[in-house]
Each structure stands twice: as structure tokens, then as C-alpha cells.
Amino acid sequence: MSSVLVLQGDLSADLPHTAQRFGQTFSGSRARIAADTAVLDDAALRAEWEAAKLDYAVLSDRPFSGFGLLASDMDSTLINIECIDEIANFVGLKDQIAEITERAMQGGMDFAQSLHQRVALLEGVPESALEHVWENVLRLNAGAETLLAECRRNGLKTLLVSGGFTYFTERLKHKLGLDYAYANELEIKNGYLTGRVLGRVVDAQAKAELLAQHREDLGLSAEQTLAVGDGANDIPMFRAATFGIAYRAKAAAQHAADLRINHNGLEAVRGWFA
Predict the structure, then answer these.
(1) Closest CA to 216 of 208, 243, 128
(2) Are 84 and 172 spatial neighbours (Cβ–Cβ below 8 Å)?
(3) Three-state DSSP class for 99?
(4) For residue range 189-219, what is the model confidence (pLDDT) as tens digits?
(5) Does residue 118 sit in the same domain as residue 244?
(6) Where is the catalytic site (predicted)?
(7) pLDDT above 90 (res 107)
(8) In which domain, by residue range, is 121 found?
(9) Which of 56, 152, 181, 267 qualifies as a FRET site for 96, CA 20 to 30 Å off?
(10) Phi, psi of 27, rounded to the nearest 5 degrees
(11) Phi, psi of 8 (to 5 degrees)
(12) Taking the complete model, does pTM exceed 0.90, yes or no?
């Protein structure tokens, strides 16, 4: 399979080194150019693309319709927030919990341990806090609806798999027409959070296992899956997929990913492929 250099972003920017290297000028928001990975050894090219805020990669030239499953993280990937941090904000604990969240997403502590520690701090928070976050704070990240529409158009199933909470994943599944959704269930009694999570924690390993399970259930090959996420707990899911795609991600996830989106929206997941 031939390989291509893909550039995504504002290609009307001044790109003299790129024009000279490939013998042409570019426009629009995406370019696909026959090239091999050696092109990435050119430091001047990479510096020019970074300065122009372009996302770039060399990858096999294959159609998006050749994939069958897209798995996505939720918090800070499909949506603009870490839900647990915003629930904590309702009771003045955002800074304390956000610091733990950040350490977990950077890979500095075990995810399940961090989840139990953070949820315990939410004991006594009214269920109405979750509704407040859903209605007034949570928003889709740029390009999310475009990406999901492209998945439907090209026949890809969509799997939302999150270390967050079912309260939000189930609503997103219904709102966006996602095929599958998994997350952690908060225990709620008499309208208040108990500070506990019910059942098995959806951690890094569970994400990878759910991707593999649905790949097998759909009869897909190992070459037909995509995974997108932003944190260290997405790395096993990246490794279980054909392509792991880091979206505005933490350093550990950036390093582990096959493709990186740092400047565009989620529409760029589709843009890597023909």
C-alpha cells in the first residue's frame, strides 16, 4: 500500500519550503501528497508546518470507508470538559479534584485509584449538579458532529468508551445516535451521590477490551479500527486499534499515538484518510 503525507489546517499560509520540496503550492484545508516517512526527517519542513499550525503525518493511503469501528474517549475528546471536575465545581472542590484528574491523565497515578479517590470527594453532592453540567457546561468539541456524520456516511460504527460517567455517555449516545457507550456508574441514593462507583471501573484496560470485543462482534479485522483520545488511560485502546489518534492530548498519549491532532477539530480524524 502506498503512503501519503497528509497536511491539515490552513494551507493558504506561507509555506515556501513545502512548495519548493513538492513543486507546487497548496490551498484549502487538506492536502494529500505521495511521500514516504523520510519526508519527516526534514526539520525545515516540520518547523514550517508547526509554525503554520498544521497537523501532519505520513500514513498508508487508505479510504475512511475501509474502517468499520471508531472508538472515542469522552472527556476532553468528544466533549470540552472533564465532567468530574465540573461536578466538583458545583461544591467548590474543582481545583482539588482537577489536580488528581490531571495526574491520572498524564499517567502519574493509577486510573482506578484516582477515580475512587475523586468520586469519594463527591459524597453528598446533589444529583442536580450532574444535570447542571449537562445542560449548562458540557459542549461538543469542534468537529465532533462532522466526524460522526462521516462515520454514518461511510458505514463505521461508533463506540463511546469513557472513564467518566454513564449519566453523560447515555445522554450523548441518545443525542448523537452513537452505536455503543460505556462508562462508570455513580451510585445515587435519595437524590445524592454516595461517593461510590458501581461495578467494574472502566479503566485503560477495559477501554482496550471493549474495542476488541466490538471489533470481534462486528466481524472486523485488526486493520479496521480507529481510536481517539487524549489521556494516558487511552493508550491501551490506541494499541488495540489500527490507528490510535491523539486529540489535543497529554504528553504520554501524544507519544503513544500513531496520529496527532493538535490544531484542528475532530473533523481531522476523518481528514487523515481518503
Answers:
(1) 208
(2) no
(3) helix
(4) 999 999 999 999 999 999 999 999 999 999 9
(5) yes
(6) 73 (nucleophile), 75 (proton donor)
(7) no
(8) 66-271
(9) 181
(10) -150, 180
(11) -130, 130
(12) yes
Q: In what order do the strands lie in the sheet with 259-261?
A: 192-198, 180-189, 157-165, 69-72, 225-229, 243-247, 259-261
Asked if 253 and 270 count as a contact pair (C-beta separation under 8 A), the reply is: no
Question: Which residues does the annotation mark as catalytic?
Answer: 73, 75
For 52-64, how does the pLDDT look when each residue is reduced to its tens digit (9 = 90+)? Answer: 999 999 999 999 9
Residues 125 and 194 in one domain: yes
**Residue 253: closest CA among 226, 231, 220, 269:** 231
| Contact predicate 128/66, CB 8 Å | no
81 and 19 in one domain? no
State the pairing for strand pair 225-229/243-247.
parallel
In the chain, the number of structural domains is 2
The answer to whether residues 212 and 243 belong to one domain is: yes
Q: What percent of the chain has pLDDT over 70?
A: 100
> For 248-262, how does the pLDDT look when each residue is reduced to its tens digit (9 = 90+)?
999 999 999 999 999
- Cell of residue 210, nine digits: 471493549
